Amino acid sequence: MSVTSGVYPCYENQFKIGTAGAQTLNTIADMESFSVAFDDGVEEWTPFETEGWKRRLKTGKGVTISISGKRNIGDTGNDFVAGLAFKNGRESEADVEWTFPDGTVVKFAGAVINVTALGSADSTGVAPLEFEVMSNGKPTVTG
Fold it and tell me: Is 70 exceeded by the pLDDT of residue 1?
């Protein structure tokens, strides 16, 4: 699966999830799309010597990955995410790995999992599972 150059289809990104601190993480069956939002903290100031031009320094960072797909009862990863829907506090945290097509792995230890849709749709629709992976501290990036 490793791509070293060129374009690639988004399905080559892979996600795994599991209990915070667990040795083994599981894929999440039937996920269809994801989007990533970076929430950067940037401090701005305008000293006299810049003649009105702003200076800036990035002082913080957060990442939210929104993942959506279908609810698949019996899949370990899918069941794990669905089981977090009614949890609060530290019970809603999990370890998540995002593997890029080039082999880079980003591990979010103790990420906050925010389930946003679970099993509700039109009567003829397939039940959804949608959630956000919200960074909780600095991730580990390897590769």
Answer: no
